[in-house]
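Example 4.3 (complexes with small molecules)
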Amino acid sequence: MNPEKKALIDQILTENKGKDGAVMVALNELQSQIGYITEPMEVYVARKLRAPISAVHGVTTFYSFFTNRPRGKHTIKFCLGTACYVGGTPQLIEKAKQLLNIDIGQTTPDGNITLEVCRCVGACSQAPVIVIDEEVEGRVRTNTFPELLATVSN
Ligand code: FES
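Answer. The structure with FE2/S2 (inorganic) cluster bound is encoded below.
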């Protein structure tokens, strides 16, 4: 861990130690400010906040907001909820993989786009849904996906 990053982590942990929901709040801050939370970071957080590692790991693996690798500048998430899945998410994922030449969970070599999947985002009536950064896009089709992709491509 580089000294700057460690100082930032220590600062976040010190600010939150002893507060209600310290683990959740600190992890949110770490994800927002550093961009990812690795396993050694989870162990460090657990030790510093005197929380079980299972509690820390449980949070980072349950919420899709957390990632253990740096994300690209933009994130495209494909909803895998039932309505979206049957509505065409698998075909959209295939299209994205084909166009970007990366798999789900990977980032383009230029660091621009990360592909991820997510749970239902509550827009089932617009299935299939993708989320580009924070924007929900509904009724996406394999022939309209490239246009959406172009909005975040270099
Ligand atoms: S199933 Fe995709 S938004 Fe609900």
